[in-house]
C-alpha cells in the first residue's frame, strides 16, 4: 500500500510502499508554519487523502488558475507570486481539525519558487520542484493516504514590531484625521493617546475614530506615503540586521494594512498583521475589519499566540511604544518598549527593556538573543 509522509521539521516528503521508503522529495511548506484557520496561509497537519489529481499529461511548468491550465510559466518572466505549476494533488482532511482542507484549497503542487525548496515559504500548500512533482504525481493514486507531521523542532525567531511611533514617526490614524477635517484632528489625537496610554479601552476608541474620519482613497494613499517619508532613523538597518541573524520580522499594528504595506515593502518585511481597510471602487470609505484582533485590547496577544502555535519559535520578541504592545509581555520572551518617538511612562516602567533609538543594531540584537 502506498502512502505519503511529510515532515515539516525536515522539509521532506517520503513516498512509502508497504512501509518501505521508495523516494524522498524536498519540499517547501507554509512560511507561517502550521495551522487550520481559513485564510491563515498555514499548513494543516494530521491525516489526509488525495482527493483529486489535476494536470495529467500537461507540459512541465503549466500554470493553473482555479485548477484549470492557463498557459506555460516561463522562468525568464520572473518568480513573483506563489504560482501553482505542473501538477496538483488536492488534499482532503480526515481529522476534525483539518476537515476544512478542501475549502482552503491546500494542495501538493509544483512551484515557480524552486529556489526556496527546503525552506518554509509557501502560502500553506506543499511545494515541490516541478520535475519531482510530475514524478510523484505518476506514482500515487486518488485515495492515497497522506500524513503531515507537525513541527517539533523550534527554528524560527519571531520579531514582532509595532508600526506607528516605532518604525515610522507618525500615527496613521491621526494623520487621516488631519486630512479629513482639521477641526476634528484634536479630538482624534486625544482618543489615540488615551488608548495608547491605557486610559480608555481600545475597542471603544477604534470605531469612534473611524466614524469621525471615514477615510477615502486619496487620504489613504497620502498616509501610506507619510509612513515611508517618516521612517524612524536606523529602523531599516535594524530590520536588515535582524533578518541576517535569522529573525523573521512581522509588523503587528493597530493601524491599517494597506497603508502600512509600502513601508513594509521598503523594509523587506513580508508579513503585516494589521487592520483591513475597505475602499470602494469609487474611492470612498466602506468600512474596516471590525473583528480584527488589533482593534481591541489583548488582540496583539491573539496574533502572537497564533504565530507561536504555527511556528513553534525558539524565541519571540515584541517591540512597541503603546499599552497594546506592553500587554503582550506575558506571551513573549522579551517585551521591548520603544520611546524614540513618544515615551509613554507606563510602557517604560513595564517593559523588560527600554530603547530610544536603533543607533546600534548589533548591540540591540545581542539583547534580543
Describe what this molecule looks like in 3D:
The protein is 31% helix and 28% strand. The chain has 369 residues and is of the alpha/beta class. It has 2 domains: 2-149, Beta Barrel (L,D-transpeptidase catalytic domain-like), CATH 2.40.440.10; 157-368, HAD superfamily/HAD-like (Rossmann fold, 3-Layer(aba) Sandwich). Helix 8 (257-267) links the parallel strand 12 and strand 13.
* Tally of structural domains: 2
DSSP strand content = 25-35%
Which regions are unreliable across 5 or more consecutive residues at pLDDT < 50? none
The name of the CATH superfamily of the largest domain reads HAD superfamily/HAD-like
Topology as a string of helices (H) and strands (E): EEEEEEEHEEHEEHHHHHEHEEEHEHEHEH
Q: Using only CA atoms, what is the Rg?
A: 23 Å
Task: Provide tags for this entry.
single chain, elongated, alpha/beta, 2 domains, 369 residues, L,D-transpeptidase catalytic domain-like, Rossmann fold, 12 helices, 18 strands, six-stranded parallel β-sheet
A few lines on this structure:
With 369 residues, the protein is of the alpha/beta class. The chain has helices spanning 101-104, 130-139, 172-180, 182-196, 202-213, 217-229, 235-244, 257-267, 299-311, 323-326, 345-350, 361-368, and strands spanning 2-7, 12-17, 20-28, 46-54, 62-65, 68-72, 84-93, 107-110, 126-128, 145-149, 157-161, 247-256, 271-275, 277-279, 285-288, 315-320, 334-338, 353-355.
